[in-house]
Design brief:
This protein is mostly helical and 494 residues long. The protein is built from 16 helices and six strands. The longest helix is centred in the N-terminal third of the chain and has 26 residues.
Length: 494
């Protein structure tokens, strides 16, 4: 943590003094060039948002392999990971800057600016706790006065994150008389505080859902919170890319494959959910999920079925034939200006559907629920279709999807959430909340294990990241005291 030196130079402030939001993507400016005391809140906010979305991205480059959204070089399964990219974004670039924003907001009475900083801080510390369990937080930004910070437990971090969100919600429900407003530095909502308020509620509901197994919250609590959350896809929390910049999923999967470099390709799990293999269509009107060709491309012979890569295999699909499905150049998630997405209205509806299903007495294998759960389930699907620009009319009337209230099962909800949350690290949390259950995630199987598989973890799911070398080297005693194997559940999943 010696790198976390507040009041000297903040790494992401290299993006400061931007005249418009596009400039916040200029990550090639030399660092250590601006003193934080010389910057205003508007100079700090854009870089914090940028790093927040990139922390999600870097975590997902690993977690998305664990959830079998994709594999490296088409099929390779990831081993245990430090997720060091996410750690750096959070600890070097986000937390020191949110502290600075909050201090400046307090001085100027800009309560809404402070609220947005609190929401961003809650997002980042909960992500860190989700990935590493116990983490530096309460002492993380002490700088040179405390170069060996103690770690907060995941339970303590979650308490802090919920408190930050509650404080933000209270502030955003009040008038801000400071006359300080946000503009282009707000890369998410352009200064629309009503959307930040709905985001705070939606993110809080997501965190409450994580804590159900610990008895901290009930499904009814989640339902109460999500009622104040997102109301349409216009509320989605995402960062768009300007035309002169490149979305990293596009740059690191489409462009790299085109140039013969490292790339990822869709795994069999996601493709088999979309092509009708795991959930066969029943109406005769639908052959594949209409989102499939919007997300991926089939490079097989004309008429060949869509085949994803087996996670950890050697290029084969689950039917034994060679996989043929790759990320699409121009696909929804893999076009040059595709947004990085943190949480959406579709996810909000699946949070509501799951909470209502559980509140009605449902469990992993029970059948049937109430109208609240069913309507939210169907609305989540509709929102996902709308977001991707897909015509879901026939899909949503197929009885494999429109199963009816009395036949709804948890796996129906989680299947659609899995698809709608593609490239979202939240799916890793869902897998761990339900202990990688194939009752909840139909067709899910452990990665194939080749000759290079680390025998120490053979036959086990990876359930957390390990602490990065940078932290082990600079704070060894504290890291050792908090160390757990990567196959050990984080606190809220125990």
């Amino acid at each position: 943590m010696r790198k976390l030196i507040r009041n000297i130079f903040i790494g992401t402030l290299l993006l400061a003094f931007a005249a418009c939001s596009d400039d916040y993507f200029d990550v090639n400016t030399p660092s250590a060039s601006v003193n934080v005391e010389d910057l205003g809140m508007s100079d700090l906010l854009g870089p914090v948002i940028h790093s927040t979305l990139y922390a999600q991205y870097y975590a997902e480059t690993v977690a998305g392999n664990y959830t079998q959204y994709f594999g490296g070089y088409g099929y390779a399964a990831a081993g245990f990971s430090e997720m060091s990219g996410a750690w750096s974004e959070i600890y070097l670039y986000v937390l020191p800057n949110t502290v600075a924003i909050k201090e400046k907001a307090e001085e100027s009475g800009a309560k809404h600016y402070r609220a947005v900083a609190e929401i961003l801080e809650a997002i980042n510390i909960s992500l860190a706790a989700d990935m590493w369990d116990n983490i530096p937080y309460s002492e993380a930004t002490d700088g040179t006065s405390n170069p060996y910070p103690n770690f907060d437990t995941q339970e303590e971090v979650y308490t802090s994150a919920i408190t930050l969100l509650d404080n933000a919600i209270a502030a955003l429900n009040e008038n801000d008389d400071s006359n300080i407003t946000m503009g282009s530095e707000d890369l998410i909502y352009g200064g629309d505080m009503s959307k930040w308020l709905k985001a705070a509620y939606t993110i809080k509901a997501r965190l409450q859902l994580h804590l159900l197994a610990k008895g901290v919250y009930s499904p009814s609590d989640v339902l109460s919170t999500i009622e104040n959350g997102f109301t349409s896809i216009d509320d989605d929390f995402q960062m768009d890319f300007p035309s002169e910049q490149l979305n990293p999923w596009y740059a690191n999967n489409v462009l790299t494959r085109n140039t013969g470099n490292y790339y990822r390709a869709p795994n069999d799990q996601i493709v088999s959910l979309l092509n009708g293999t795991i959930y066969p269509f029943e109406s005769g009107l639908v052959e594949i999920d209409p989102r499939l060709p919007i997300m991926f491309e089939n490079e097989g012979a004309e008429g060949d079925p869509w085949r994803g890569f087996m996670n950890g295999g050697e290029g084969e699909s689950s039917d034994g034939e060679d996989a043929n499905t790759f990320f699409k150049d121009g696909g929804y998630y893999t076009n040059a200006t595709a947004p990085l997405i943190l949480i959406t209205y579709a996810e909000a509806m699946f949070i509501k559907a799951e909470a209502a299903f559980l509140a009605n007495g449902g469990n992993e294998t029970s059948v049937g629920s109430n109208s609240v759960a069913y309507e939210a389930y169907m609305e989540g699907i509709a929102a996902s279709m709308e977001k991707l620009g897909a015509d879901g009319t026939d899909y949503m009337t197929d009885t494999a999807v429109d199963v009816g209230e009395s036949n709804l099962m948890l796996h129906h909800i989680m299947k659609e959430k899995y698809i709608a949350n593609y490239f979202n690290v939240e799916t890793y949390n869902d897998f761990r909340r339900y202990n990688f259950s194939d009752n909840v995630f139909m067709g899910l199987e452990l990665r194939l294990e080749g000759e290079d598989e680390d025998s120490e973890y053979t036959g086990q799911w990876y359930r957390r990241a390990i602490y990065p070398d940078s932290e082990q080297n600079s704070n060894e005693d504290v890291v050792n005291a908090n160390w757990q194997e990567p196959t050990v559940d984080v606190w809220w999943a125990q």
